[in-house]
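Q: Here's a chain of 92 amino acids. Please give me its 3D structure as C-alpha cells.
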Amino acid sequence: MPSKTVTKTVGYSTGEEPYPFENRIKAFFHCRQCIEEKPDGISPRDWAQLEVGWTRYGIQVWCKRHERNVEHFHLMGNKVRSVTSDEDEADT
C-alpha cells in the first residue's frame, strides 16, 4: 500500500500566504562524527540520532549518539513564529 502524503495548510490573520506542512528542507544537518562512522548501505537519515529543541538563546541540534552539539542557532533576541503540525488534525 503506498504511503499517504498529508498536506495541511494554515492561514494567518496577517495576510501571509498559507504554509503547507510538507518536507521542504533543502539541506540537512548531520553530526560530522556520525557521517564518518556511518556504515555502508545506511542513509544518513536512517543513521542520524539527532534531537532539536529550544534553548534559552535559540534552537539547538544535538547528536544523541555522540552527546555533542551539531549546531546552535542564536536568535539574538529576535521574536520567531513557530508553525506546528498536529498529525491528529491532519486526518480530519
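Q: Can you summarize the key feature?
A: The beta strands are 9-10, 19-20, 50-54, 58-63, 68-74.
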